Amino acid sequence: MKRKLAEHTLNPVGLGCMNVAWAYGNPPAREDAAALFRHALDNGCEHFDTANIYGGGVSEEILHEAIMGRRQEFFLATKTGIVIDGTRRGVDCSPDAITTSLDASLKRLGTDHVDLFYMHRFDPKVPIADSVGAMVRAIEAGKIGAYGVSEWSAAHIREAHAVHPVAAVQTEYSLFTRNVELGVFDTTKDLGIALIAFSPVGRGALGGKLRDIDTLTEKDLRRTFPRFLAENWEKNLELIEDFNGLAAEAGVAPAQLALAWVLSRGDHVHVIPGTRSIAHWAENHESASLAIDAGILARAGDLINQQTVAGHRYPEMIRPTIDTEDFV
């Protein structure tokens, strides 16, 4: 069943486009990434989510090359705000930065508009009304259809929404990561905002494939994430093995059970799992139409949750940039 997102009605399983350019493992060949995007569009994917920082714009460029000639057939989202410039790291959601970044993204994407433009992180240096004002001007100029925020707290979401309605809030949400349940989930539901779950398969941990963390490539970001460090992974792997058994009992793939659990949380919830594999894309895409017993979903939630998972979701150096409420 389709769900509302920024005045559109879409399949709630979209495609996160980070993995083709950055972060996990070695990026695929550019032509293979383009083939994945074309296959997804040909087979019912309606929502493609990218960002300016994914490969320094490479993800946006590949989307341009692969499917932008069919722009009217899909919902497109990208992001701004995270600064990665050589050794400089930070967040900039000042009006000038938003406008400049949007124009650069549109050029890389090869389009005159995106349907949704996110502030990728909260910028405490800039008044929310100023940042939202830049988004409103972009809406009025026809460059974006709506705006959203990513990893913002419930209070800041409400403040932004009071200036101009927020269409979507994107944050990490999975069996592993429940931070949204501290306030953001209820806020989005109350205000009629779509909740877009990134990393809904636990950054690949719940995909049924990863068992040995030593197989992660040297530059894989997960090597720095506490849940994937040796001292935590052994305990988490025990949970994962039990979870895989639940998926087998339900007759579905582990990733499908993980996605179905997130989608079951509310009718305003969407998921954007990332992948480099056409086969995995097809498996993920099918999740929205699966009928999984509510008892299995409940057992999955009881098995894997904030109390049973070992390790924080982010390393210490990243945690200060996350505005979403955190567990003590």
From TrEMBL:
Pfam families: Aldo_ket_red (PF00248). InterPro entries: AKR (IPR020471), Aldo-Keto_reductase (IPR050791), NAD(P)_OxRdtase_dom_sf (IPR036812), NADP_OxRdtase_dom (IPR023210). This is Aldo/keto reductase. Transmembrane segments: none annotated. Keywords: Oxidoreductase. It comes from Novosphingobium mangrovi. Signal peptide: none annotated. The keyword Oxidoreductase applies. Residues 13-293 form the NADP-dependent oxidoreductase domain.
